Amino acid sequence: MRAFPCGRCGLLQTFDSERCVRCGAAQGIDWTALTLVADPPRRCANAAVADCNWIPESDGALCFSCALTRTRPPDGDLSGLAAFARAEGAKRWLLFSLGDLGLPLPEGLAFDLLSSEHEPVTTGHAAGLITLDLAEADDAHRTAMREQMAEPYRTLLGHMRHEVGHAYFELLAGGALDRVRATFGDERSDYQAALDRHYAEGPPPDWPERFVSAYATMHPSEDWAETFAHVLHIRDTLQTAAEHGVRVGSADPRGDEDRSLRASLSDWLALSYALNAINRSMGQDDLYPFTLPPPVADKLALVDELIASRSSAPRFTR
Fold this sequence. Notes:
This protein is an alpha/beta fold. 42% of the residues lie in helices and 9% in strands. The chain has helices at residues 64-67, 78-100, 139-148, 156-167, 169-173, 177-184, 191-201, 220-243, 261-281, 294-310, and strands at residues 4-5, 12-13, 27-30, 35-38, 69-71, 110-114, 124-126, 129-133. The chain starts with a strand and ends in an 8-residue tail after the last helix.
């Protein structure tokens, strides 16, 4: 993520800042320019209900991000709305990152953000529609699911990145299906059979040598989505480190605007090692509990190459 100075006084702001703590200027994200604006002329209709700081086309309308949400909890569902606000924050981060990469959005992209307190909800995707169980916004629930599913990294933003990865498959892989299938497997294989096998038998014992996560072993489409999400994890974290002057590797991780992910992996490994060490120093678990053996690096490099082939913006522009 980029670093954002206040447009009035220059104090560094966060992506979701609503007001500068030094000068008091209101802050808003201009989606079209991918910048943070001081004293924005308009406010999103979800400014209060979803803590949204994005600038809509007209005052009181929904901003671009909020308009992509097809279904949300009703106004009377206070706990659902609190979770909805956190989910919308993760969605805005996702969309900004995709815009910063210059990626066109998948056709039909929309979001159903639903509370499973009232009816069963399955997080997933279907023809561009991403459904998220808002229970994932609850730390206790997410921790329990992380342990139950043996998923060491489980966050709202991670879910968003994974599910949108499914939506990007046709857009990115359509022109390179032979290469994608040779790398990930055939996405046309029986998904339900793969799902049943995964939950009955678990991942193969050698999965860390070939997959970025245990869940990626379930089916080629899940391997693609997990890998897509990790490309976004790596790109976004390297950009954030560079924007804030953090140097761990041998070079500026922002480097050349066209620098490939493969060329940046040494910097990523150094940065993630340092971040894990810092977390351990604070008595926390590793921030990035993954390894990237050569087959996984090859998958990451292919997805990154396909992203770059559809990107209209140079890497890490300000």
